[in-house]
Write the structure tokens for this entry.
Amino acid sequence: MLRAWVDFLVDTDLPIFATLTFRRPVTQRTALRSFREMIDFTNRKLYGTRCWKKPNLLLRWAVVVERGVEGLLHVHALLDAPERDLVLATRHLERVWRKYQGIAQIGPVRSSERCVRYLCKTLPQDGQVELSRNLKKFPK
């Protein structure tokens, strides 16, 4: 199953890798909700309040919540946006995350295979990958 996720995510070609941490302890549910809220906020900022009518304009993402060494949760994500908005989207997401949640490290993917393997490293220990609606679905 891990190999299938790695192959799928490498094929999606998401060019940005992000590690997003929290200032305070949060649950996995809260971590995912916070991530989705920041993505939604960024989509509305870039494309307007009615952006949901054009899903091909929205950010695409795959995200995994992971427990760090100290026991605190953090998020690893692969991201993509329409080409002209990629830099704006990552800057906005980084700024907003730092303001409201904690530390944001966002940068370009240098090796797709290595980033995907890092993202998926917790899958064997009961992890799961969440996908944006506009990212093609993982074949079961």
About this structure: The first helix runs from residue 2 to 12. The two ends are 9 Å apart (CA to CA). Residues 2-64+80-128 form one domain.
